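## retry 2 of 3
previous attempt timed out at serialization; input unchanged, resubmitting
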Amino acid sequence: MRPSEILPRTQSIFIRDEDRSDTRSIYNILWSCLSTIFACTWITVHPNIPAPGDSQWAVIRRRLAIMGYFLLTPECVILWAARQHYGARYLTKKYEKNHMGWTRTHAFFLIMGEFTLHEGGKPVRIMEARELEELWEAGKIKWPTVTKEEIEDRSKGDYLSKTIVLFQTTWFVGQCIARGAYGLTVTELEVVTVAFASLTGVVYYLWWDKPLDVRCSIPVDLLDGRLGEIAREIEKKKLAHKILPLQKSLPKKLLRETKTWSSTPTHFQQPQFKLIHPPLIQPPPEYSDLGISDEERGTLFRLGYAFIGFPLKRFFHALYDMSECKTLGNKSLRVPRFYSSYNDDDPNDGKPTAPAVCVATVFGAIHRIAWSFHFATLQERWVWRISAILISGLPIFFLLFTIPFPVFDMEENNTIWSKLGNTCFGLLVMLITLLYLIARIVLLVLPFMALRALAPDAYVQLDCVSFLPHI
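## retry succeeded, writing output
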């Protein structure tokens, strides 16, 4: 019997045909794909610890935001995870010799903001790695003695839950491969799901030792209670350790000068260096940066900023934080959402960038599997092809394009060519980012549109994989 004789070309989403084991409905396809995508974008993500007073809704809202960033820019979330992974490796190597029992789990615990400085039983602020080390060396705190088993007991995830997620994603990828091997149609939504499933192993590798959904931090008490003196010392050291926003692009000579400045008194003014181009991800400007007075701001302008400008600003700030956030900023009782600790072995974050670019390329290449798939219209097929090429090629082009740009002291190089290069680079970066986001949205929307006109054999269920346990 040919596949076309099994079912008609279209089918209702609610028809399950439970009396037939050799067919599946659109409902089955949606449930299998969406449950796998949810496992890849929600369950696998290990967020940082919330503040003590944060509500349950605030915690869920941050998780939903991370899930949205994972759907739109998965390579940026991979970059954040890679930065934390290499940061944890650095802190483990640094502290395990002098502190018995210190493991990579402890390092992740420190990075995600789990050690809080307490005075008189009250929390004061989250402690960064440098602060913890400096206060311990000064004899003002005791080094945390929490064990790995105690940390894992606080975690909401264990090896079993991670194994179940990996089994679910592996089952899904396997059944898609089996359908292709039998010559049956694999839907575009299943291809997208396979792309996300391929990220699960990478995310779990990077965060395997990171505790999941820990809500309460561990107190580290001051031994003598001299909070005012300690706070002033730490603030002075934090100012001295400030890193230029785009340090990863600075030449080695300038990096050496930056380290020299960190040992000088903070009242000395640091020289101002500017790039020939603006930050790689530049958020939309505030009202005050637009050169428009309060009287000139009409209702339309305010609505445009509220519904377009402000969301874009938050979105681009988040992308920037995934690649750059190494300080607490204005946070006191929790680390920023995409925070990662410093790594003196790799101050320019070169190691995390490599897996992020590789993942972005492979993630985009998987979408090319549907190059010759059945689409409702020829236009949709070409839109899919162009979008798949963009998301697999733009990350490499973006990386290769940004490497050659040098750093200049704009006071000495304030020429028309510098300004022109600055403007051209900024416009090109905005164009690349915009094209990538449009391509990602297209590849998220088209698979659902394609469900309206599936090929007949897309409804055929393979018995060889249906009996395996899965979600």
